[in-house]
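Standup notes
- HV: blocked on the assembly model, inputs below
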Amino acid sequence: MDHFQALAALMILPPLVGSGLWFWVGRKFGERAVGIGASLALGLSFLATILLFKDVEGSARIIFFDWIRFSADSAVHFGFLVDPLSLALGLVVTGVGTLIHVYASGYMHGDEGFGRFFSYLNLFVFSMLMLVFSDSLLGLFLGWEGVGLCSYLLISFWFSDESNAQAGKKAFVVNRVGDLGFLIAMFALFKAFGSLSVPELLQAIQSGGLDSAQTFWSQVACWGFVLGAAGKSAQIPLYVWLPDAMAGPTPVSALIHAATMVTAGVYLTCRLQPLFLMHVSVLEVLAYVGALTAFFAATIAVFQNDIKKVLAYSTISQLGYMFLAVGLQAPVAAYFHLITHAFFKALLFLGAGSVIHGMHHEQDMRHMGGLRKQMPVTFWTMTIGVLAIAGVPPLSGFVSKDEILHVVSGSHRNVLIGLAFVTAFLTAFYMGRLWIMTFFGKFRGHHEAHESPKSMTIVLMVLAALSILGGFLNWPHLWGGHAYLEEFLKSTVAVLPHSQAPDAFSSSVKLAVGSSLLGLLGLALAFWRYRNFQGEEFQAKFFRLFQNKYYVDEIYDAVVVQNLKRLGSFLWKWVDGFVLDGLLNGSAAVSQRAGMQLRRLQTGLAQQYTFWVWLGVLILIVSVYTVGS
Amino acid sequence: MTTTVPFAYWLILSFGVFCFGACGFLIRKNALSLLICLELMLSAVNMAFITFARMHMSEGGNILYFLVITVAACESAQGLALMINYFRLKQNIRLDDARALAG
């Protein structure tokens, strides 16, 4: 076992081992030990990832063993592909994951399922690392399904409440639709290239000279991956599960449904960039899907009253931004936003969790207000998060979002430009609304609020620092930065050439000023509208559409769910109840009736039996002689 | 000077006795008669064995004769024992009435 293999094993094994450990002996160890142990496992993993980051030059392929063998010379390896793309996300997953584990050990204090919770959380990190680092699509799929499973388990963590169990089920089923796309894409790629290994596939695609069948199947694969990414990353039309996923504990929402798992789709599209570059039409669709999702989710977020729901729609909206960037062939911008989003959205979710914790599990913002005095640390860290996502310079959200807006305005597609800028404004508005409804005005709650314990507030402070400084990871060259992330990722993904026009600097500054003014305007409008909030609602009928989330859930229910239920009931009552059971009971009845007739032969008279035996012998003898002659 | 009876006569006699026994076995009611019919059939078979032994000038048929006669003795002892016990149970040995195993 060489150096890299040892490091990779050190990275992936602690969460897996921990997961088994906390599940079976969590109760015996007690809360303190489990909380520290689970965080330590993640810490080890983070350390190993940092060492890999330090030691690996360029990219390295670490193969452990042959996993599935097709023939003598082709096999799927169980191995890792450690390159800038996977390392960047791996560092975010383990780093933010460690922080959230520490936070969760405070947040989940006193919960009956403490051990179970950390078991699932560790298992999630293991699956996520599998997803990020695996060098084959099969391993990636293993992680992809693993994170889906953990997401399901954690959404319905408090399963004794029926609605939580329903939310978990919804997330699982909707994700299955996306996974079908992923599976089809894998089949198509295997059919076209006979391999599932990512480096081999990308090499085959980049070397060019594909025949028409390969082109066709790779296009099928592209669409499949888009569907898969839309499912996992909550894009139109499969975004409906993410708001419901807020039923899970808040650290879960922060880790899985904001920072890491939902970005898997972005990672996938960046990882397979050469494949998508072959089919630019798919990328075009992806850009529009992303922009539309960003806009629609933002409009819904404005009208939500549950603090976590606002953040959930905000996450969908920001993921839309990332897909917009991917679709416009700017994976670095998408990746940059992915990383900064992981920082500030984790911060916002954990801040919201701290508020919920302090308010004794009250999530409705209409019952909050004035919390800035009771919860100063939460207030100040949340403020940083809100400013970051609203795009106030020089916080991280400003830099990354500005880069995406820069890409969009360079694309000359007016619809996308309009959607992106309106969304930027809406983002600032709903985040300002959340901030003001929670921390300003009069206290409208029922219980006295209190500040959260140290283990939670320290994590908030660390994340706040990251949200401030995250922008310097990729501070553009134009503004005198070093664009570390871009330089780092350059070797694995194609990067658009920078504009060399003489007015590039002034136009980018104009854009930055414009977008930050837009953000400040949104915040100011929210402040003006909500500073004296007393629980009144938007009255205009026009807003009902947004309040009811465009009736998408209702439409899906009527079109898909009800019809599936009807199909199920048809299969149950008619096909199973009538046809299958009829066949079964019918054959039973036939043999029973035949038995009733045949039993008459059994007279009990020995002489009659003898007669039958002799008759048989006679027939045998006669037939032997007649056939023989 | 002895005249030998042709083998065919022996075989026809054996066949005739066997058929008598077989028919008797099928139509008689009394279990004791059935046992006698069984013995009749076995004797007929024995006769055929000895005839064939003579025909082929081999000892196999004679040896089988002793085997069959031994088995026949055992069988009739068993049959008589069954009859006696059955009679004790039912006060008769009519086989028409012995149909407890009717389906």
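- HV (later): unblocked. Chain B has a mean pLDDT of 90. The helical segments of chain B are 7-27, 31-56, 60-90.
- Next: hand off to the docking folks.
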